[in-house]
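Record now logged underneath.
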Amino acid sequence: MKQSDLLIFNSKGIYCPKAQVYIDPWRPVNNAIITHGHSDHARFGHKKYLTHHSNIPIIRHRLGEINVQGIGWNEPILINGVKFSLHPAGHIIGSSQVRVEYKGEVWVFTGDYKTEDDGVCTPYELIKCHTMITECTFGLPAFKWKPQATVFEEINAWWKSNKEEGKTSILFGYTLGKAQRILKHLDPSIGKIYTHGAVENMTSVLRPQLEMPKTHLISKETEGKEIRGNMVVAPTSAHGSPWMRKMVPFETGTCSGWMAFRGARSRRATDKGFVLSDHCDWQGLLQSIKASEATRVICTHGYTDIFSKYLREIGYDASIENTDYEGEKEDSSATENSQLA
């Protein structure tokens, strides 16, 4: 990158020198714009935080009483002559893309994003720009998502089948984002929905913003016979833990984009894999880039080598920048309050 670029990458994060502001910095800074609440993007230690209103309850729940300012979608804020605005990323609740404009030059940092409307978070918004900084977590042609409705038909059919066999269904997904997406689209006519403490806590934070089904927290007092035949939503960190003993007999399922890879289910020792990601697949990435009309693309976290090489082959000025973002991995905060059950 050139030092004259509107956004540069340094040891602390993605930096706008003209505004002296960082976007999703991974080391403590004075001024941070935060795209969403996952722990690799929203970190403790910054003096001032700027994020979308709907993300404030999430990051305060995780980071404590931070100095945070909230703004709405498409609400411009001018910092030292640079115009910033937040736009829906469609990744999880409150997730934003950051549009940065200075003297007619427009950059967009997508953060993590997906283009399918999941019925939970504000859908992805296309932004025209000159330079696009994009994730490529699933930047391989092998990743091609089914429509969400099809996946949830499979999940609810699996639950119903397990119930008929007298088994409890345990479904694993991220505490923030994936768990709420799962809860939203489960069929409560099949049975009750139980939750791990970490899922219940995060969902409680988000209930004021979301219409969610009734859930039942699994506590130490919860008996196995109460749970049998019903659905349990839990973080992947709970898999294989003593917490699961009271649920025998059970079947386990994992919701992740990685389930598209042959062998991923057996490596995670789960009975069923459902391909459900909160990130774009290969076509989603390419379609977003093309629609943005960007000529320059900077690839971060994911299959950066393969994806950027392909972009160069089809005519883009594409490069790679390293970050401390992790893409779709277990969110470290998912273990919070796991001792509740």
Residues 148-274 form a domain with the Rossmann fold fold (CATH 3.40.50.10890). The longest strand covers residues 82-88.
